[in-house]
Specification:
Largest interface: A-B, 55 and 51 residues
Shape of chain A: flat
Strand content of chain A: under 5%
Radius of gyration of chain A: 21 Å
Radius of gyration of chain B: 20 Å
Strand content of chain B: under 5%
Oligomer: heterodimer
Number of strands of chain B: 0
Order of helices and strands of chain B: HHHHHHHHH
Helix content of chain A: 55-70%
Number of strands of chain A: 0
Largest sheet of chain A: none
Helix content of chain B: 55-70%
Number of helices of chain A: 13
Distance between the termini of chain B: 58 Å
Shape of chain B: elongated
Number of domains of chain B: 2
Largest sheet of chain B: none
Structural class of chain A: mainly alpha
Order of helices and strands of chain A: HHHHHHHHHHHHH
Number of domains of chain A: 2
C-alpha cells in the first residue's frame, strides 16, 4: 500500500489526455479500428475494473480479478488493453471522468439561469462523487492513490480541466475569460467542501479558539460528503454571484469579453 | 532552537548528536524528537527515516521515543507535519499583523503564503518524491487548519461592515476556505503579483461580503 502510482505507470492519469472524450473503443491503444467483439470487450473490462476497485481498491486489483469480474479470459483482456492493468485503470479513470461530466451536464442543461447552474455544479458534483463506489473505496482506504492528483500543483490541472468542461455552459453569458475564472472559483469551493464538510469546520474552529492542539485521527481516511442544494445555493447567491461580471446584451451580441468597471 | 522554516539543512546531522547532559525526560525531549525527525526527513525523506536515527539524533533511546510517540513513525511524522503547519500559520499571522483593513489583510496574507509555500524547499521536494506519504497527513490536518483560519477571520471581521443578511461565522468560513484553496494552488492566477492578488481578493473573496451601495 502506498507505492507511488507513478511507479505503476499511472502518473499520466488526470494529465492532458483525461479531458478528451474517450475515443472509439479499442482505437485508443492501437490505432486500429476495433472488431465488434473488441468494443464489447473493452466496455466489459472497464466495467469489471470499476467493480473490482469498488470492492478491493486500486492496489489490490489484478488483471485476473478484472478478467473474472468481466467474464472474460486474461487473453481477451490483454487483447483489448495491451498495456495491461495500468492501461485498464487509466481507461477506467477517463471513463469515470467522462461519465461524471455527462451526468453533471444533464443537470446543467436544465439550469435556467447562472445561479441554478453554479448551484448545480456545487451540489450535484458532490452527490455524484459521493455516490461512486470505486471512488468511495479509494478515498476511504487508499487516499494516497488519489491525493497526488488533486493536491497542490496537481490541483492547477484539475482547475484547468474543470474550466474546459464548464466553459460551454458559461461562455455565452460570461465570455471566455470570465467563464474560466468563475468555473475555477466554484470548483475550489467544491473541493474545499469535499475535503472538509461543513460540520467538521465548526468543531475545528472551536478547538482552535480554545487553543487546543488538533485532533488527528489515527486512521487516514477521507469521507467526502455532498454540500447539499440549500447550502450550495446560499454560497452561490451570497458570495459568488456578486463577484461575477456578466456580459451585457450588447457585449453578447458582438461577442466581446465583458468590460471591467 | 530556531530554524528557518522550510530549511533543508537544519542544524545538526541526522545521526548521533553531541553528547548531552539532559535527562531522557521532560518537555524538551518531545521538541528534540520532533526536530531530529524533521532533520531526518529533510535528509532522507519520509520512507527512509528510521526511528533509530531519530532517537539518536534527539539523544534519547528508542524506548523513550516510543514513550512519546507510541504510534511509531506514523505518529511521529504526523506530529512533525502538525508542528510545521503551526509554524507556517504563526509566520503568516505575523506577516499580516500590520494590515490596516480586511482587504489588505487578505492581499498580504495570500501573497505571503503563496511565496512561502512555493519557497518551502522540503515541502516542494516531498511533494515531488513522496506525495503519497505526505499528502494523507496534510489532509488530516485540513479540518483543523480550516478551523484555525476561520477563527482568525471571525476575529478580524468583527469590525467589518458586512452585507445585509451575512453573518460573521459564515463569511469567515467562506473566506477561510477560499484562502486555503488559493494558498495550496494558484490555478490561473499569478499570486506572486500583488495586483492580481488584489483583483482576486476584491472579486472572489470580498464581493459577497461587502455592504452594497444603496441604489
Amino acid at each position: 500500500m502506498g507505492t507511488a502510482l507513478a511507479d505503476r505507470g499511472l502518473g499520466h492519469l488526470l494529465t492532458a489526455d483525461v479531458h478528451q472524450p474517450v475515443p472509439g473503443p479499442g482505437a485508443a491503444s492501437t490505432g486500429v479500428p476495433p472488431s465488434p467483439q473488441a468494443s464489447g470487450s473493452r466496455a466489459r473490462v472497464i466495467d469489471g475494473a470499476r467493480r473490482c476497485v469498488g470492492r478491493f481498491g486500486v492496489s489490490k486489483t489484478t488483471v485476473d480479478d478484472i478478467a473474472r469480474e468481466a467474464g472474460l479470459s486474461r487473453a481477451t483482456v490483454y487483447r483489448a488493453f495491451p498495456g495491461g492493468r495500468d492501461e485498464v485503470l487509466s481507461a477506467l479513470v477517463r471513463f469515470e471522468v467522462d461519465e461524471f461530466f455527462v451526468r453533471l451536464g444533464e443537470h446543467l442543461d436544465r439550469a435556467e439561469n447562472l445561479e441554478d447552474l453554479l448551484t448545480a455544479v456545487l451540489s450535484v458534483s458532490g452527490e455524484l462523487l459521493a455516490a461512486n463506489p470505486a471512488l468511495r473505496f479509494v478515498l476511504e482506504y487508499e487516499p494516497e492513490a488519489v491525493l497526488p492528483f488533486v493536491s497542490f500543483h496537481a490541483f492547477d490541472r484539475v482547475l484547468a480541466v474543470a474550466g474546459d468542461r464548464l466553459l460551454p455552459y458559461l461562455r455565452a453569458e460570461l465570455g471566455e475569460t470570465e467563464a474560466r475564472r468563475v468555473a475555477e472559483w466554484v470548483v475550489r469551493l467544491l473541493f474545499s467542501y469535499l475535503a472538509c464538510p461543513a460540520g467538521v469546520v465548526e468543531d475545528g474552529a472551536r478547538r482552535a479558539a480554545s487553543g487546543a492542539p488538533p485532533l488527528v485521527p489515527a486512521k487516514i481516511a477521507l469521507h467526502p460528503a455532498p454540500i447539499g442544494e440549500e447550502r450550495a445555493r446560499r454560497l452561490v447567491r451570497q458570495f459568488v454571484l456578486p463577484g461575477i461580471r456578466v456580459r451585457s446584451a450588447a457585449e453578447r451580441s458582438s461577442c466581446t469579453e465583458p468590460t471591467t468597471d | 532552537m530556531t530554524r528557518p522554516e522550510g530549511d533543508l539543512a537544519g542544524p545538526g546531522p541526522c545521526g548521533p548528536p553531541e553528547p548531552r547532559a539532559e535527562p531522557e525526560a521532560g518537555p524538551d525531549v518531545r521538541t528534540r524528537l520532533l526536530e531530529a525527525a524533521y532533520r531526518c526527513i529533510a535528509e532522507r525523506g519520509i520512507g527512509a527515516t528510521s526511528l533509530e536515527e531519530v532517537a539518536r539524533g534527539a539523544g534519547v533511546s528508542r524506548a523513550t521515543l516510543y514513550r512519546y510517540f507510541p504510534g511509531g513513525r506514523d505518529e511521529l511524522v504526523a506530529a512533525v507535519v502538525t508542528n510545521e503547519t503551526l509554524r507556517f500559520f504563526q509566520r503568516l499571522a505575523e506577516a499580516v499583523e500590520g494590515a490596516r483593513d480586511v482587504e489588505s489583510l487578505l492581499v498580504d496574507g495570500i501573497h505571503f503564503a503563496h511565496l512561502a509555500i512555493e519557497g518551502h524547499a522540503l515541502l516542494q521536494r516531498l511533494l515531488g518524491t513522496e506525495p503519497e506519504r505526505l499528502l494523507p497527513h496534510l489532509s488530516l490536518e485540513a479540518a483543523w487548519v480550516l478551523g484555525l483560519i476561520t477563527a482568525f477571520f471571525e476575529d478580524r471581521l468583527s469590525g467589518y461592515e458586512l452585507a445585509e443578511g451575512v453573518a460573521v461565522p459564515e463569511a469567515a468560513e467562506y473566506v477561510a476556505r477560499l484562502t486555503l484553496s488559493f494558498i495550496e494552488a494558484p490555478g490561473g492566477w499569478d499570486l506572486a503579483d500583488r495586483e492580481q492578488v488584489r483583483e482576486l481578493v476584491r472579486s472572489e473573496l470580498l464581493a459577497g461580503l461587502q455592504r452594497r451601495p444603496q441604489r
